[in-house]
Amino acid sequence: MSESRFRGTEQYIATDDLMMAVNAAVTLGRPLLVKGEPGTGKTQLAEEVARSLNRPFLQWHIKSTTKAQQGLYEYDAVSRLRDSQLGDARVHDIGNYIVKGKLWEAFTIDVQPVLLIDEIDKADIEFPNDLLHELDRMEFFVYETREVIKAHHRPIIIITSNNEKELPDAFLRRCFFHYIRFPDKETMERIVNVHYPNLKKRLLSESLEAFFEIRDVPGLKKRPSTSELLDWIKLLVAEDIPPEALRGDQHKIVPPLYGALLKNEQDVHLFERLLFMSRRKKD
Amino acid sequence: MMTDFFLKLRQAGIPVTLTEFLTLLEALSQRVTAHNVEEFYYLARAALVKDERHYDRFDQVFGSHFKGLETLFDQVIGAKVPLEWLHKLAELTLTDEDKALIESLGGWEKLMETFAKRMAEQEGRHEGGNKWIGTAGRSPFGTYGYNPEGIRIGQHESRERRAVKVWDRREFRNLDDTVELGTRNIKVALRRLRRFAREGAAEELDLDDTIRSTARNAGYLELKMVPERHNAVKVLLFLDIGGSMDDHIRACEELFSAARSEFKHLEYFYFHNMVYEGLWKDNRRRYTEKTETLTVLNTFGHDYKLILVGDATMSPYEITYPGGSVEHFNPEAGEVWLDRLLRTWPRAIWLNPQSQKRWSYVPSIQMVRELMGERMYPLTLEGLGQGIRALQRIR
């Protein structure tokens, strides 16, 4: 299967361990569970895998009210009942009232697709358990029409979690797992380069410096992440801020447009207070 | 080679199962890696470790197994910081009766005064005896000794539970809410607290009402929906942490873990020994991120049920005197704050991990129990059951 190995794309820098995890999951046809700080590109990973392997991409976004059954199919008994009262001919075929879910779609698509189950930890505690059999055997039974839906090709399933709930052991046992670590400076430089290839070298290094300094401020409620750095650089470029404005003694200058990095007014206060204190020390 | 690795991982406390191990072997036989140690490491990690908290341990096992390095575990588990001056050399053992017999040394002011004087007098290291500051003695100052109103200096865990001032600031770790082992029983006990109510958006079919309305509608279908039933009970959990609670950390973790998954409306705060004007949510940042107790009092409504967990083993001053706290100067006494809590949340109980046999020997437990209106229960399954029943009785 050497032709279908994932190596990252032009838009997405993947570290070696991430590539390994993806390739292992693809080869063995097991789901890959991805965790990591918000904004480290968990959701994007699935899109990029689909793009680089040239596969169709399906996304199932989980909310707190999502039930596992909704991923398979839903039987709309109410509209069937209503149709029967109105004398609609469709009523005789129960299949007309079965709404396919994302898993069904993924199972019956012609080429092996990439299915993203996004933020699985948002759902009820029992949610992952209810999907065990379906993910394991890649098949399920439709009670209403008495048919078994079996996957034509085992889809590549990528599951993301923000760690709001612990996932059950039985579920974890069936997955490959990868934790996306926060990128170090070199990786970060590569990531920014991919997104803004024409960025001036000076602006890049200055902004990265300022960014990692803000990340190091102790006690921040929400530390800025990769996606926020990218937004910030976009703003810096759009406003045409010279690298000099970011330069030199960071304790003296508030980085311009820092609202893109700090999303919480307590964090902004904390940051300003720290700046103020260090400024007083120097005077 | 591989089986040994698997067993070593299990010994290191990583919950690896046979299924995962077989997955790894399958991946190897499918030639996912190209016989490269680094790739093999990444593959093994993705297949075997399912929690980033275990990454560190996995790295150590991997390193020691595949590179023949010496095991690093002794360093990890057995690391202790040496204390220079107050070093633990001998420990005084006393029975409960002895403890109850030892008299206190005058009042609070006198204790502080004498301490300052002794500090000035004493120059060297001291051990045993009952006057100087040092280890294993009966003087009120120093560690590893016993005196009911003693001051504790430089000690890892509070050895006897009565020190009035803790001088060594220690970093306590947060309660780990992931301890799942043995929490099932606690969950069952907590389940009794459940009270179902229909709240939120209507999304469940109300069959009775639908039939009734359809009949009234001359047989034409009229749908009636009701909101789904949710567990509507609201719980506030205040946990004592550090100091004398170190012994009971396991029981508290289990309770916390069970409660976390059982209640949707669960708020928790930490305190130390007694509730004062500040509480905190993250133990590592307890000194910087405090929540004012008044804010908490005003935030959560009367319908919350309050569960305090603590051993209530402390110096009586911490309850009755302003300024009696072991960690800071409190302008108002602990009993004043406890009274305020009980006024806001009349449905309250105190769970005590200390064994019930010892309660009568510790004056502070008696005092707290009285303040709680006798609603103190041991942190055992039985005690928890009694407590929950008591919570439901209070109207």
From TrEMBL, chain A:
PANTHER family registered for this protein in UniProt: MAGNESIUM-CHELATASE SUBUNIT CHLD, MOXR FAMILY PROTEIN
Protein known as: AAA+ ATPase domain-containing protein
Record Gene3D superfamilies: P-loop containing nucleotide triphosphate hydrolases
CDD domains: AAA
Every AAA+ ATPase domain range: 28-186
Pfam families recorded: AAA_5 (PF07728)
InterPro entries associated with the record: AAA+_ATPase, ATPase_dyneun-rel_AAA, CbbQ/NirQ/NorQ/GpvN, P-loop_NTPase
SMART domains noted in UniProt: AAA
GO function term, MF aspect, one: ATP binding
Source organism of the structure: Candidatus Competibacter denitrificans Run_A_D11
UniProtKB/TrEMBL annotation, chain B:
Source superkingdom: Bacteria
InterPro entries: Uncharacterised_CoxE (IPR008912)
Pfam families named in the record: VWA_CoxE (PF05762)
Name of protein: VWA containing CoxE family protein
Source species of the chain: Candidatus Competibacter denitrificans Run_A_D11
